[in-house]
Amino acid sequence: MWLRLRQIALVAHQLAPVAQDMHDVFGLEVGYRDPGVKAFGLENAIFPVGNQFIEVVAPIRQDTAGGRYLERRGGDGGYMVICQCDDHRPRKQRVDQLRIRKVMESDGHEYSVMQLHPRDTGGSFLEIDFQKGGEDVNGPWEPAGKDFHKAIRTDVVRGIAAAEIQSPDPKDLAERWSRIIEIPVKSDKAGNPSLSLENATIRFVKDLDGRGEGLGGLDLIAVNRARALDTAARLGKRAADGTIHVCGMRMNLIDA
Asked: pLDDT digits over 80-104, tens only?
């Protein structure tokens, strides 16, 4: 029974500047804009990163869940960790067994969604979805539309290797997520508790920036590290330690 990291959602006050940063710094192109998110008071842009995706959403009206999240975390930042599974039924049974509330749930012939309540999961929104054709790692992904392959660019980065969730108590939060997705907690090279999915890692770290618990960083697999770092420096988005800051996130470039 496998589980992949397929999509990361970020939330921003304004979509256009972040979309431009994603293009300029990481060489990514918009593969899809979902008109359906308008029902939630949002607009979005979805960027393919190899066979994974980074989505950026932004409020287009007052009093939206995304807007409240921006206020709670003090600005742009991480929003959702969206995973793809090969069998939805046992995942749903596990969530029900743990009495975790669901924010959204729908079952379709091709695609099914299970979005969990962040007050029950902690850390961020955690979503576990099923996509027919998922045996192919480069296969379809309904949230990204039908033509996302045309927008894939891997000149600068080619994948998401890790999501970094910060918390006052990383070990406790890692154990909570471990119980939900049924993957044991291990320690990475830096001693951080982590969960190893089929294609990526979810890493739990101490909250050191004062923004509280939430999705705070990504590890991106670099193809052209120098280009990304040079562009980030020119735009004032490169930190002294080489981390790139886009949409309130710490973007770490790692080797393939």
From this structure: 999 999 999 999 999 999 999 999 9
The token duo for 68 is: 């409240």
Same domain, 29 and 122: yes
Indicate if 24 and 77 belong to the same structural domain. yes
Domain coverage including residue 14: 3-151
State the CATH number of the domain containing residue 239. Answer: 3.10.180.10
Task: Name the nearest CA neighbour of 218 among 231, 236, 205.
Answer: 205
| Count of domains observed in the chain | 2
CB of 87 closer than 8 Å to CB of 81: no
Tokens coding 206: 């101490």
For residue 27, pLDDT over 80 is answered with yes
pTM of the full structure: 0.97
Cross-strand partners of 238: 244
How is residue 18 written in tokens? 């972040």
Least Cα distance to 4 among 128, 126, 177, 110 occurs for 128
Distance CA 36, CA 16 (A): 18
Q: Same domain for 21 and 116?
A: yes
Cα distance between residue 33 and residue 44, in whole Å:
6
Sign of the CA dihedral running 58, 66, 249, 156: negative
Region of residue 75 (left: phi > 0; alpha: psi -120 to 50; beta: else): left
